[in-house]
């Protein structure tokens, strides 16, 4: 199957709306939320535009496993063979297998009546990257969410105190909207007065007054319905009505006014700045009010988007109509921001070409008309000691670094330009470098296609590397203001060539992502692993080493760590010896995991917390004991499903030592199966040799003369398994001994869980004990 390198661009509006509806719901599910940072990181590397719900969901579903997380929550059984023999070198194969499993499990749940029937889903619907196919995947996910919401109480989890915080955000929206309406009214009156004062000098102020009047009508509508909706607690929240999404005439008028205002923004700014030094005192009052607040109508759209996002993040989607109305309002404001930004970028680029042609005398074979879009212009510090600054212009095709030319006049036209120091600089706003008219001289220029890397060397400094004429260059810029360095770093990253291709191995972290989430509703938490495997199982479901389990809180009654505290108290535990009873338990965690294919997925994991691994974790220190082990007896002393255990003697200079040898039995002459068996053995060895805990059976080394496969050398326990010992000595086993044995078993299991290893066969036979 051919795979799409990314989502198909320009999705239709109905598909984008569906994504905006689905993504916020998935973000409220703790088990699914952990996959979203991975997909967002992928999206940020693959795309140069802002993140959208469409792109985030596509990259998330493309991993495969996040889709199966929803089925796990719904109680769908998973096929065990999907998780065996994982090929970590071919991620696409594993993604395809996960998608096949997802489709088959969906069909099974439809047959069982646990999921409403829907259209037939195929693998190519996701992997081909078509809009039609992805819409089918989204509709399937929507059906799953509907079934989950009906059968899973507490599916959506909000942080503590979310209701109060949400009310605060709504009050902030109402108060700021009321202040904005008052400001628009004052700006409209000032523009009307100035249009009469400068009537003979064009229609700049008259057009500005007309746009402000239309915006005032729209924002007045928003304020009226916000007051009406939230002054009556019984009234249902209808955000579509608040933002006039169901009133086509008003919505069209407001959208047109916003776009027109953006088109005339720079023209109005020039007009007002030219008049401020020649106006009378009464007129100057109106000019100054407009200069101070001219950008506010454009910034207000971003304020709406920010507050709506905060409100949505704290809303439970129990009332689908109300919840969807917030999503739709957020989608419309996002669309308007994109339109305003696109218009602003084009106008700012035209303005820069006109300005720089008059300010820069020598272009050195650079055509200012061919520089493409102006991404950013700013002042950046060149020398922290002297405070010398450079004017830097970042175009999509070239970076220009310029210095001011000394002149008797500070500005060409004698009027100092004002500029906003508000970071990040909006795409329709002139930056500090363009806001002045000082003559410039080009210090150096770098085509952006020569960029090799960009680094943030400190909180306020960035370094850029590039190759030009087979010479390696590096230049450092230092920011002047808070937020300035952030915006420059992001802008430069999007133009660096090395981010154009993405390796999924590099994008998806190899270890679990830490979480500071406290609002998990008491549910278990799980973390995604690097190769698209299931992220959650229920507390009593079949164990699977595909799941990375998190440590429980120490004080939770169901936590293994809490067992000692229930009987002794935390203070007493610290004072007791590690082995107060006559027995010490050893968890034989690999007894049956090999046969069940439980270790196939394990990769290199760093030790969490305070757990350390001794020198046995180094491959060079794992002993090859071939020829030093003497077998005792003619037959194995224990048998497993695929392995035998022999009692042997390890001959050493310091004395003999009894050991147990685990030997795999040969079962087939099939070369493919043989290769898989060897592969599993290597993985089991890779994991076992790195573990070091007093309640986990240690690995002494390996031998190669006990059959066709490498055999493992472990300590020999005379007391045998816990089950055998209890059968022989149950009468001498006190309650304290039982509790201590449970605590030691739990300690060994907790250590294994901290490395993402799950035992898989927790029985009395798989635990050994020894008399102390």
Span from first to last CA? 60 Å
Q: Strand percentage, roughly?
A: 5-15%
Helix and strand content put the structural class at: alpha+beta
- Averaged pLDDT, please? 77
The CATH C-level name of the largest domain is Alpha Beta
In CATH terms, what is the architecture of the largest domain? Answer: 2-Layer Sandwich
Main sheet: strands, sense, barrel: 7 strands, mixed
Total number of β-strand segments? 18
Shape: elongated
Tell me the radius of gyration: 34 Å
The CATH homologous superfamily of the largest domain: Phosphorylase Kinase, domain 1
Number of helices: 23
**Domain tally:** 4
User: Percent range for helical residues?
Assistant: 40-55%
User: Which ranges are low-confidence, i.e. pLDDT below 50, for 5 or more consecutive residues?
Assistant: 41-50, 80-86, 408-419, 498-519, 525-582, 589-620
CATH-defined fold name of the largest domain: Phosphorylase Kinase, domain 1
What tags apply to this protein structure?
772 residues; alpha+beta; Actin-binding Protein, T-fimbrin, domain 1; Dbl Homology Domain, Chain A; PH-domain like; 4 domains; seven-stranded mixed beta sheet; 23 helices; 18 strands; protein serine/threonine kinase activity; Prot_kinase_dom; guanyl-nucleotide exchange factor activity
């Amino acid at each position: 199957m051919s795979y799409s390198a990314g989502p198909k661009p320009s999705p239709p509006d109905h598909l984008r709306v569906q994504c905006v509806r689905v993504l916020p719901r998935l973000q409220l599910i703790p088990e699914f939320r952990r996959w979203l940072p991975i997909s967002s990181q992928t999206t940020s590397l693959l795309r140069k535009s802002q993140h959208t719900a469409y792109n985030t969901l596509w990259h998330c579903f493309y991993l495969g496993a996040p889709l199966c997380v929803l089925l796990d929550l719904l109680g769908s059984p998973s096929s065990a063979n999907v998780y065996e023999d994982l090929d970590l070198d071919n991620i696409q194969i594993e993604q395809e297998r996960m998608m096949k499993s997802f489709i088959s499990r969906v069909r099974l749940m439809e047959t069982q009546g646990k999921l409403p029937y829907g259209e037939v889903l195929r693998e190519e619907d996701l992997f081909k990257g078509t809009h039609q196919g992805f819409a089918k995947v989204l509709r399937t996910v929507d059906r799953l969410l509907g079934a989950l919401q009906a059968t899973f109480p507490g599916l959506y989890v909000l942080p503590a105190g979310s209701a109060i915080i949400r009310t605060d955000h709504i009050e902030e929206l109402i108060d700021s909207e009321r202040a904005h309406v008052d400001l628009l009214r004052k700006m409209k009156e000032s523009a009307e007065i100035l249009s009469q004062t400068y009537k003979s000098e064009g229609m700049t102020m008259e057009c500005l007054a007309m746009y402000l009047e239309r915006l005032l009508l729209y924002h007045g509508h928003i304020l009226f319905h916000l007051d009406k909706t939230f002054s009556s607690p019984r009234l249902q929240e209808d955000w579509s009505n608040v933002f006039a999404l169901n009133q086509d005439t008003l919505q069209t008028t407001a959208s047109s006014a916003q776009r027109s205002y953006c088109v005339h923004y720079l023209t109005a700014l020039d007009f007002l700045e030219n008049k401020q030094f020649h106006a009378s005192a009464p007129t100057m009052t109106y000019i100054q009010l407009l200069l101070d607040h001219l950008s506010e109508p454009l910034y207000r759209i971003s304020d709406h988007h920010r507050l709506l996002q905060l409100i949505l993040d704290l809303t439970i989607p129990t009332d689908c109509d109300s919840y969807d109305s917030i999503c739709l309002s957020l989608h419309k404001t996002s669309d308007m921001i994109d339109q305003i930004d696109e218009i602003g970028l084009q106008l700012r680029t035209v303005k820069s070409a006109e300005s720089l042609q008059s300010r820069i005398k020598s272009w050195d074979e650079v055509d200012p008309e061919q520089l493409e879009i102006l991404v950013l212009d700013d002042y950046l510090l060149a020398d922290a000691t002297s405070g010398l600054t450079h004017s830097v212009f970042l175009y999509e095709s070239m970076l220009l670094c310029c210095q001011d030319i000394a002149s008797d006049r500070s500005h060409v036209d004698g009027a100092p330009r004002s500029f906003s120091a508000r970071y990040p600089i909006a795409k329709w706003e002139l930056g500090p470098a363009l806001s002045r008219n000082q003559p410039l001289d080009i210090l150096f220029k770098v085509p952006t296609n020569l960029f090799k890397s960009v680094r943030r060397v400190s909180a306020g400094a960035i370094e850029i590397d590039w190759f030009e004429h087979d010479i390696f260059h590096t230049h450092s810029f230092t920011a002047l203001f808070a937020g300035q360095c952030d915006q420059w770093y992001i802008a430069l990253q999007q133009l660096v060539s090395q981010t154009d291709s993405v390796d999924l191995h590099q994008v998806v972290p190899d270890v679990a992502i830490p979480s500071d989430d406290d609002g998990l509703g008491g549910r278990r938490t799980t973390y995604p692993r690097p190769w698209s495997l299931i992220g959650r199982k229920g507390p009593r479901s079949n164990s699977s080493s595909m799941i990375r389990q998190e440590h429980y809180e120490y004080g939770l009654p169901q936590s293994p760590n809490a067992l000692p505290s229930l009987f002794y108290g935390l203070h007493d535990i610290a004072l007791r010896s590690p082995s107060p009873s006559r027995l010490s338990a050893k968890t034989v965690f690999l007894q049956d995991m090999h046969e069940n294919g439980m270790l196939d997925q394990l990769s290199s994991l760093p030790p969490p917390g305070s757990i350390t691994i001794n020198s046995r974790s180094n491959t060079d220190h794992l002993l090859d004991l071939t020829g030093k082990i003497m077998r005792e007896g003619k037959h194995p002393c224990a048998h497993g499903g695929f392995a035998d255990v022999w009692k042997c003697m390890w001959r050493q200079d310091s004395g003999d030592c009894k050991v147990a040898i685990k030997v795999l039995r040969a079962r087939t002459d099939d070369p493919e199966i043989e290769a898989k068996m060897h592969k599993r053995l290597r993985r089991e060895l890779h994991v076992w040799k790195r573990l070091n805990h007093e309640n986990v059976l240690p690995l002494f080394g390996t031998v190669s003369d006990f059959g066709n496969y490498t055999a493992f050398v472990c300590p020999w326990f005379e007391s045998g398994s816990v089950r055998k010992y209890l059968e022989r000595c149950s009468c001498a086993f006190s309650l304290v001994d039982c509790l201590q044995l449970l605590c030691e078993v739990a300690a060994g299991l907790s250590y294994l869980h901290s490395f993402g290893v799950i035992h898989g066969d927790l029985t009395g036979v798989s635990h050994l004990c020894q008399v102390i």
